[in-house]
Amino acid sequence: MKDDIDFGIEVTDEQNTKYIFMTIHPDGTFNISEQTLNLFEANKYNQCVEIFENAKMNSVKVHGIIRDALGNINIIKDTEWFTIPEIYSIKAELANGNTKLRGKEKRNELLSSCLDIKMFNEGVSEYYFVGTIGNGMRWLINRAANIRKIEPFEDSILMFEKLLPLMNVTFVHNGQLTIIPFPFKYLREHLNK
After folding, report:
1. What's the pLDDT tens digit per position in 64-79?
2. Which residues, in sequence order, are bridge partners of residue 64?
3. Using the 8-state DSSP alphabet, how is residue 46 labeled?
């Protein structure tokens, strides 16, 4: 990235709600700050805090917020959608007597909706899911992938596609891809200190 980028999460404990933000600078250094809802003090995080507050009032789960240096805000939300394999193609293969559906070619043909990181657009939002790593020794897919929604705040530009490499890492979950950009892991670790 050529400019600063902010990642934010909401954390609620027994007594209050905090909003933790990590600003990552182009040189790789970062700052972490805690925010609260404060109507009398203006800062660059006010809109982000309001997004979390409004989501809570509307019973919407927000996994995180990403804000670029221009003020574009993308919101990561859950959907009720999940991926499934090509079940009709699998059924046809089995009906034709092919019970050995192994190998890289068959895996990509029949299970592509459960592999790697995929993204698609629908309307003004982007959707993505993170499945099992498609290459390598793993041949077992334990579960479907949840599809998450990236929603632009107001007239913000969608920038999430540029951040996909931040999920194509295996150090967050040993040997697995991470479902949200890895800076959110550092925010959670900061909270556990």
Report:
1. 999 999 999 999 998 9
2. 76
3. H
Residues 92-121 have pLDDT tens digits of 988 998 888 777 788 788 888 888 888 999
State pTM to two decimals: 0.83
- Pick from 191, 189, 184, 190: which is nearest to 9 by CA? 184
d(CA 20, CA 85): 37
How many CB atoms neighbour CB 150 within 10 A? 20
153-182 average pLDDT score: 80
pLDDT at residue 137 in the model: 46
Q: Does residue 148 have a pLDDT over 50? A: yes
Buried b (16+ CB within 10 A) or exposed e, 35-73: beeeeeeeeebeebbebbeebeeeeeebebbbbbeeebb
For 152, the token pair is 């632009």
What backbone phi and psi angles, to 5 degrees, belong to 7?
Answer: -120, 135
Q: Using alpha carbons, select from 162, 83, 153, 100 the residue that is nearest to residue 125.
A: 153
> Which residue has 């670029």 as its token pair?
68
Q: Which H or E run includes 53?
A: helix 46-57
Secondary element (H or E) of residue 110: helix 104-111
End-to-end CA gap in the chain: 28
